[in-house]
Specification:
The two termini are 44 Å apart. α2 runs parallel beside α3. The strands form four sheets. The chain has an eight-stranded parallel beta barrel with strand order 2-3-4-5-6-7-8-9, surrounded by eight helices. It folds into four domains: 275 residues, TIM Barrel; 29 residues, no CATH class; 59 residues; 115 residues, Double Stranded RNA Binding Domain, CATH 3.30.160.270. By secondary structure, it is an alpha/beta fold. The structure holds 3-methyl-2-oxobutanoic acid and zinc ion. 3-methyl-2-oxobutanoic acid binds next to β6 and β7.
Length: 514
């Protein structure tokens, strides 16, 4: 009989902490709805004390999302725990997730506390959290670099204090699978009350081992894995949910374990997270990369055509990848459009569908065939866009040999039109410079990337920009058959995100320590 491994999704907390991946409340809600559709067991909705925006997002998710447990993260401090408790209060099922470092490095340099003081603080935090809910998770931050005897003492003490889940994070992505597995086994064997709690693992990917480490932990007794969609997260990211879940599904007999996840929803979740964060997915990324199910070599294709299982260990359909039988174009109607979006995992309301369809009709006039990637871009722009401070009304650019590129932009700023003309080193520079002048931004552009969404000269250009201002980093995306317009849209999208973070007291830097 297979054990069920609990999936604890932290896309909205650890994932959102990665540079440029901040999401607004509506975007977080859309992701939370998709996570609920996938049947994740626990959604870590945010870090309520980090900012007003974080608090509100956790509260809205707690109010709306039914099914999964809603968790709020907090340091092992009463004021953090109170704030988290307030944010998750409306949830049907709620969890307080409190953390405190246990490694000597963190104790000495960050916390400046002795082991005894940390032990006492951890116990006090768990007891305080238990006043609000009987579902309390304690994380021993930097557990993989903590002294094993001390870690065992902390785990035993927090379970006695009422922790129902004990998380053993590989905070800095330092662990090696065999060693990490042994650490988990060591806890199972040495902590006398370990059967009173679920062991959780939370792995970062600094050495590219987050998923392998999590699987090693499962083999040694872990009952919960913490992970994110597309593996987004601090630095090199967290363990990718889709990889963990499909490893368990594909090798269920080996692991004698499985999950509750509706795997057919994986692609939709991946696309959604990509759209709202602007964080692209590499083509060769396992499970959700564009090439994950593509067979290129002749020998492979030959074998695959004779018998799929020769080169395919899981079907594209099992992760929700459906090959389109419909090619959409300008004669396609609303019905075909809606059906294709549904196949791709986008369940849109009437208004959203209308907006997306209007854009589709416009695009179909510009280019002959509309591919899935085009539809993804349409949904990202027309549906997943935040309430706009800045909106592009019109853009005119003149450039050519022997003349200085010049742009004339009309931007709607909080409902009012503002017009300006300015020059630049090239047409894109002129457009962005003019938009920046109107918006009066002090942001710095950290990255600018342009790629064709599909093949052919009529392909849409997809532009991603990364901006930084006052310690906040955001990504913006825009697509259009005209790459100057796509660039302007991406830049405006990023400026809107900065404006949103400023308004909502969005985090500039996470208060991860006292
Ligand atoms: O990586 C980490 O240790 C964390 C904890 C807060 C669980 O994200
Ligand atoms: Zn983490």
């Amino acid at each position: 009989m297979s054990r069920i491994i609990r999936i604890f999704d932290t896309t909205l907390r650890d994932g959102e902490q990665s540079p440029g991946c901040s999401m607004n409340i509506e975007e977080k809600l859309m992701v939370a709805r998709q996570l609920a559709r996938m049947k994740v067991d626990i959604i870590e909705a945010g870090f309520p004390i980090a900012s007003i925006g974080d608090f509100e997002a956790v509260k809205r998710i707690a109010e709306e999302i039914k099914g999964p447990v809603i968790a709020g993260l907090c340091r092992a401090l009463d004021k953090d725990i109170d704030r988290a408790a307030e944010a998750i209060a409306p949830a049907e099922r709620k969890r307080i997730h409190t953390f405190l470092a246990t490694s000597d490095i963190h104790l000495q340099y960050k916390l400046k506390k002795s082991r005894e003081e940390v032990l006492e603080q951890a116990v006090a935090a768990v007891k305080h959290a238990r006043k609000y809910t009987d579902d309390v998770e304690f994380s021993a931050e930097d557990a993989t670099r903590s002294d094993m005897d001390f870690l065992c003492r902390v785990v035993e003490a927090v379970i006695n204090a009422g922790a129902t889940t004990v998380n053993i994070p590989d905070t800095v992505g330092y662990a090696i699978p065999q060693e990490y597995g042994e650490r988990i086994r060591g806890l199972v064997e040495r902590v006398p009350n370990i059967d009173k709690a679920v062991i959780s693992v939370h792995c970062h990917n600094d050495l590219g081992l987050a998923v392998s480490n999590s699987l090693a932990a499962i083999l040694n007794g872990a009952g919960q894995v913490e992970c994110t969609i597309n593996g987004i997260g601090e630095r090199a990211g967290n363990a990718a949910m889709e990889e963990l879940v499909m490893a368990l599904r594909t090798r269920q007999a080996f692991f004698e374990a499985t999950t509750n996840i509706v795997t057919e929803e994986i692609m939709a979740a991946s696309r959604l997270v990509k759209s709202v964060t602007g964080m692209t997915v590499q083509a060769n990324k396992a499970i959700v990369g564009a090439n994950a199910f593509a067979h290129e070599s002749g020998i492979h294709q030959d074998g695959f055509l004779k018998e799929k299982s020769t080169y395919e260990i899981m079907t594209p359909e099992s992760v929700g990848l459906t090959r389109s039988t419909l090619v959409l174009g300008k004669h396609s109607g609303r019905h075909a459009f809606r059906e294709r979006l549904k196949e791709m995992g986008y369940v849109l309301g009437e208004d959203e569908l209308n907006k997306a369809f209007e854009r589709f009709k416009w695009l179909a006039d510009q280019k002959k065939d509309i591919f899935d990637e085009d539809l993804e871009a349409i949904v990202a722009e027309e549906v997943f866009r935040m309430t706009e401070t800045y909106e592009l009304k019109s853009l005119l650019v003149s450039s050519g040999t022997g003349r200085t590129p010049e742009a004339e932009v009309v931007l709607i700023v909080e409902g009012k039109p503002a017009t300006m003309k300015a020059n630049g080193d090239g047409p894109v520079d002129a457009a962005l410079h003019t938009i920046g002048e109107i918006a009066g931004t002090k942001s710095t552009m950290l990255a600018y990337e342009v790629k064709a969404i599909t093949g052919g000269t009529d392909a849409q250009g997809e532009v991603t920009v990364k901006l930084s201002e006052d310690g906040r980093v955001v990504m913006g995306q825009g697509s259009d058959p005209d790459i100057i317009i796509a660039s302007a849209k991406a830049y405006i999208n990023a400026l809107n995100k900065l404006a949103f973070l400023k308004d909502k007291g969005g985090k500039a830097a996470e208060p991860m320590c006292e």
